[in-house]
């Protein structure tokens, strides 16, 4: 069987905002399978903020990195039956030949194997395996519950709250009995945050962050889930600097998840001067990466799937149709055009 794979190649490392000639669509004829090989076909592909900074660690030209949900279409390894589904770190490509034995020990997204069986989605759409029941959902789950450790009655603040991770954080916090405050960059996103249960939602581009927090959380913020870094500028100045120095409660916890607002910066961002506040308010700030918790990943997905089934978590996907449009879906994500998880239907 002759298979021609399509793939996106990073021709030049990104400098500032990505440009169309940085990523180019190419074709590649794949060889016949050898013993032990497995041929995968992409069903859904993920675009995520981490791809922007991580790709700069690669030497272009190189195939673009990323995770996909793929099915086995030909197999010379009995452990991988035709039609079975797997999550694979195959990058931006339609077809991939993978040899499990040859790649044994090579780490993937979760700090585990490059290819892992698709978890039990409890009847939910397959695309959820890349979003609410995949890496973003697990990031929200572990970042909030392990790092922030919220207690019933705590106030939880989330920025970039309408994204794949932020939208899950707020809903999990509500399940745990917390008051939730979310910030996003458009009125449409703010409206959606209220629809999925955020107690307060604000447009950081049009409303003063400090003034809104004084109104929504006069007692202070117990947990701050930071998706967008200290360079998330809005009315009233630097977002995180404002939150941490003026509105954290004593003993507050801060989870540093992402820095999407500075990924296209051409100069390293300067962090806010927070040490004095950290000391006197006895704050805990911790960065984390989801694969720290891989041993608990399947249990987390099972609980998230149950919450979705019970209607406790609502899901929104921003779907780009067609592999050929993957680049535009990614660029739109970096500009904040998506609400919920951005995925590509192959």
TrEMBL record:
It is found in: Cytoplasm. One of its GO terms (biological process) is prostaglandin metabolic process. InterPro entries: ADH-like_C (IPR013149), ADH_N_2 (IPR041694), ER (IPR020843), GroES-like_sf (IPR011032), MDR_fam (IPR045010), NAD(P)-bd_dom_sf (IPR036291), PTGR1 (IPR014190). It comes from the Eukaryota. Its EC number is 1.3.1.48, 1.3.1.74. Pfam families: ADH_N_2 (PF16884), ADH_zinc_N (PF00107). Belongs to the NADP-dependent oxidoreductase L4BD family. Residues 19-344 form the Enoyl reductase (ER) domain. Its main location: cytoplasm. This is Prostaglandin reductase 1. The keyword NADP applies. Keywords: Acetylation, Cytoplasm, Fatty acid metabolism, Hydroxylation, Lipid metabolism, NADP, Oxidoreductase, Phosphoprotein, Prostaglandin metabolism. GO terms for molecular function: 15-oxoprostaglandin 13-reductase [NAD(P)+] activity; 2-alkenal reductase [NAD(P)H] activity. GO terms for cellular component: cytoplasm. The keyword Lipid metabolism applies. It catalyses: 13,14-dihydro-15-oxo-PGF2alpha + NADP(+) = 15-oxoprostaglandin F2alpha + NADPH + H(+); 4-hydroxynonanal + NADP(+) = (E)-4-hydroxynon-2-enal + NADPH + H(+); nonan-2-one + NADP(+) = (3E)-nonen-2-one + NADPH + H(+); 13,14-dihydro-15-oxo-prostaglandin F1alpha + NADP(+) = 15-oxoprostaglandin F1alpha + NADPH + H(+). It comes from Capitella teleta. CDD domains: leukotriene_B4_DH_like (cd08294). Monomer or homodimer. SUPFAM superfamilies: GroES-like, NAD(P)-binding Rossmann-fold domains.
